[in-house]
């Protein structure tokens, strides 16, 4: 299937004098991390199926600067931001979709002050819109009646108030959505935010992703749904730590939909 | 001689108010040690936040038990303060129950004060049990030892004593009214304190007057004492919650400020016409410091946050780092900020208005690097705070200082940042390979 993906680049469209409906901001994890690449592909499959006119920046994309900013390196963040904004503005981009809540937050909230004004949506919101507009249809078959718990990514939920789009999509799969002890605005972090993904945790009693995984396991799910590549990694590690990887899958919302649609 | 009590009262009132005003002045002076920030955006939203969050207590009831108990104490204190107005006027004018002429309305007022006073007593006792018998976890953290713990209990004791004095005053007054004692007009309705009357069985009018007067005086002196206790206590939140919710962050929680100083530098770097060897302009001041290592590097809002914090610990109890045993506690970040600010303020006081370097700072002497690096920036603390305090912004400002002024990031993070600088991703992958996923099976 992989080779059949249609992934136009902005450069190619621009050369052909075309402008896509939306820029798909893939992000570093989505581009390089083996697990996250699967999410990227699942999302692209849905975009292809729905005939969405989109493009990626490809080799012209660079880190948004989020981890640098959260680590305290404002200088590096702004260098990244200004460079990315130059590229995006040159292409006249107006709308951006991304599967990474960290990229989403940074592009949406921190780029405007530096000259980058775009309508930025998270892929769960985008998918919800496709569904509402009838551009994709969902049949519950594969996930009908399955217990799915949703882990709120901090930078999607608390940081930007997006709680319902991913939940609406899970419900559309006819799955049984079960909530964890901490959910929505009181969701517990997976432990990766604020540049923690790239360092060892400080000394403590346990790792944050283990705590969160325990909360997820308490709901006795068959699937833990995530909407962030970093949360996905942390929860996957947590499930492995509990030796439950054969029983419980950690899947992105885009993967759930792509699987349901047999893409 | 007949005016001696009026004069004594006026003097006590004056001393109480002057002393309080002095502390308020000091409080404002200390907050102004922070960086000036202009807040003139979204005024309607800010007023709305103040009404909803501070006045309306909307975030308190997220946890229903302490939330509702807190509302009882809060409403009790605000409403009973109407009675303080009468007490003050009585004290100054030498009258007794000046508002008694309001008739039925007065009875309703006094009755509701009494019921509220009783509810405050109930709430305060439950609060005390939660802190000292049940020992709820968030009150037992390491930062809550010593003064913070005693402060918490002290506030409860003062409130309890004040309410008991108020009811004793009313009960003895009621008894005197029934005895037809001179000066004690028939006024008020006493649904709670009537049950205290049996305590006064067989007492002479003389004794009752002594009890009534003592309770009256102790009550008002106690209130003035409490007013002046505020500055030294976490209890300042009863005043500062209002400005703090007004100045609280508006907009998405994930949006962090972009540093203007850095923007200028970056723009200069990106400008092909800029002369990299140009000498700085004559009037260019000292280059600013990036981030914060001491309280004077923080903004006035952050310092107001520190004074507003009432150490409830809801932030810490939701913090993923703290929950998993790391040293970071958002509440401690706020308490440390206030403690250091107080220290700087005292330094200025003893050195006649100038700060003399004491070789200390907020970083390391109060807040350790280990705490700062444990934060996941998840905003659980800011979401949990019932009065819009933002510990996360202080953590981020201090990280900026560590990274941009000291190059003191953990080595893993230095690797990550090196990768972003060199190849545009936090991992060592080539930017030219960014689209390879498209063709991988």
TrEMBL record, chain A:
Q: Which residues form the Cysteine-rich domain?
A: 22-108, 148-235
Q: Name one GO cellular component term.
A: plasma membrane
InterPro entries given in the database record: Cys_rich_dom, HdrC_iron-sulfur_subunit
The protein's GO terms of the molecular function aspect are: 4 iron, 4 sulfur cluster binding; metal ion binding; oxidoreductase activity
Alphabetical UniProt keywords: 4Fe-4S, Iron, Iron-sulfur, Metal-binding, Oxidoreductase
Protein name (Swiss-Prot/TrEMBL): (Fe-S)-binding protein
Q: Which organism is it from?
A: Maribacter polysiphoniae
* Highest classification ranks of the organism: Bacteria, Pseudomonadati, Bacteroidota, Flavobacteriia, Flavobacteriales
From TrEMBL, chain B:
Q: Name one GO molecular function term.
A: 4 iron, 4 sulfur cluster binding
Location of the 4Fe-4S ferredoxin-type domain = 299-331, 365-397
What parts of the sequence cross the membrane?
A: 6-24, 67-85, 105-129, 215-232
Cite a GO CC annotation.
plasma membrane
Could you list this entry's UniProt keywords, alphabetically sorted: 4Fe-4S, Iron, Iron-sulfur, Membrane, Metal-binding, Oxidoreductase, Transmembrane, Transmembrane helix
List the PANTHER family.
IRON-SULFUR-BINDING OXIDOREDUCTASE FADF-RELATED, IRON-SULFUR-BINDING OXIDOREDUCTASE FADF-RELATED-RELATED
Name used for this protein in its record: (Fe-S)-binding protein
Organism annotation = Maribacter polysiphoniae
């Amino acid at each position: 299937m992989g080779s059949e993906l249609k992934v136009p680049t902005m450069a190619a469209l621009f050369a052909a004098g075309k402008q896509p409906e939306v820029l798909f901001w893939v992000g570093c994890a989505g581009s390089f991390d083996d697990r996250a690449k699967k999410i990227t592909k699942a999302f692209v499959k849905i975009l292809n199926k729905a005939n969405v006119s989109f493009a990626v920046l490809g080799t012209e994309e660079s880190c948004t600067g989020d981890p640098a900013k959260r680590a305290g390196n404002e200088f590096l963040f702004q260098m990244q931001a200004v460079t990315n904004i130059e590229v995006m503005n040159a292409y006249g981009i107006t709308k951006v979709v991304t599967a990474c809540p960290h990229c989403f937050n940074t592009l949406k909230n921190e780029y405007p002050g530096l000259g980058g004004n775009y309508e930025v949506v998270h892929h769960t919101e985008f998918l919800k819109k496709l569904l509402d507009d009838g551009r994709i249809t969902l049949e519950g078959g594969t996930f009908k009646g399955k217990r799915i718990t949703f882990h709120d990514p901090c930078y999607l939920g608390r940081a930007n108030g997006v709680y319902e789009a991913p939940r609406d999509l899970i419900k559309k799969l006819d799955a049984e959505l079960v909530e964890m002890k901490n959910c929505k605005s009181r969701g517990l972090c997976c432990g990766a935010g604020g540049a923690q993904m790239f360092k060892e945790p400080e000394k403590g009693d346990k790792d944050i992703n283990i705590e969160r995984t325990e909360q997820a396991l308490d709901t006795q799910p068959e699937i833990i749904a995530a909407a962030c590549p970093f949360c996905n990694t942390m929860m996957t590690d947590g499930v492995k730590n509990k030796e439950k990887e054969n029983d419980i899958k950690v899947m992105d919302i885009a993967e759930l939909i792509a699987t349901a649609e047999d893409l | 001689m007949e005016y001696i009590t009026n004069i004594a009262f006026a003097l006590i009132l004056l001393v109480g108010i002057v002393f309080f005003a002095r502390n308020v002045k000091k409080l404002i002076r200390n907050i102004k040690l922070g960086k000036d920030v202009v807040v003139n955006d979204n005024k309607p939203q800010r007023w709305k936040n103040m009404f909803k969050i501070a006045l309306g207590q909307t975030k308190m009831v997220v946890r229903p038990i302490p939330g509702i108990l807190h509302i009882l104490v809060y409403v009790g204190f605000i409403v009973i303060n109407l009675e303080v107005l009468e007490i003050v006027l009585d004290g100054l004018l030498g009258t007794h129950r000046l508002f008694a002429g309001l008739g039925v309305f007065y009875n309703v007022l006094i009755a509701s004060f009494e019921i509220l006073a009783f509810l405050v007593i109930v709430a305060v006792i439950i609060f005390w049990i939660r802190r000292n018998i049940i020992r709820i976890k968030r009150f037992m953290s390491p930062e809550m030892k010593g003064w913070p713990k005693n402060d918490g209990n002290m506030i409860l004791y003062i409130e309890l004593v004040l309410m008991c004095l108020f009811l004793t005053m009313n009960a003895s007054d009621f008894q005197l009214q029934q005895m037809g004692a001179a000066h004690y007009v028939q006024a008020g309705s006493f649904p709670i304190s009537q049950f205290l009357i049996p305590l006064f069985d067989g007492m002479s009018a003389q004794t009752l007057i002594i009890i009534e007067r003592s309770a009256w005086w102790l009550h008002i002196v106690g209130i003035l004492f409490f007013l002046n206790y505020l500055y030294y206590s976490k209890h300042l939140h009863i005043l500062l919650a209002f400005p703090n919710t007004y100045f609280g962050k508006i907009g998405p929680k994930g949006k962090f400020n972009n540093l203007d100083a850095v923007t200028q530098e970056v723009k200069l770097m990106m400008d092909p016409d800029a002369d990299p060897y140009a000498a700085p302009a004559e009037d260019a001041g000292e280059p600013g410091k990036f981030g914060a290592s001491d309280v004077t590097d923080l903004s006035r809002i952050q310092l107001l946050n520190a004074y507003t914090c009432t150490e409830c610990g809801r932030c810490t109890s939701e913090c993923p780092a703290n929950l998993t045993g790391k040293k970071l506690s958002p509440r401690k970040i706020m308490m440390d900020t206030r403690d250091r600010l107080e220290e700087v303020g005292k330094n200025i006081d003893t050195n006649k208005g100038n700060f003399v370097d004491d070789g200390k700072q907020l970083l390391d002497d109060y807040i350790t690097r280990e705490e700062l690096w444990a934060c996941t920036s998840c905003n659980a603390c800011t979401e949990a705070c019932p009065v819009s305090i933002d510990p996360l912004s202080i953590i981020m400002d201090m990280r900026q200082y560590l990274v941009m002024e000291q190059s003191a990031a953990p080595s893993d993070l230095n690797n990550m940042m090196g990768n972003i600088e060199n190849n545009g991703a936090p991992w060592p992958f080539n930017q030219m390979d960014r689209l390879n996923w498209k063709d991988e099976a």
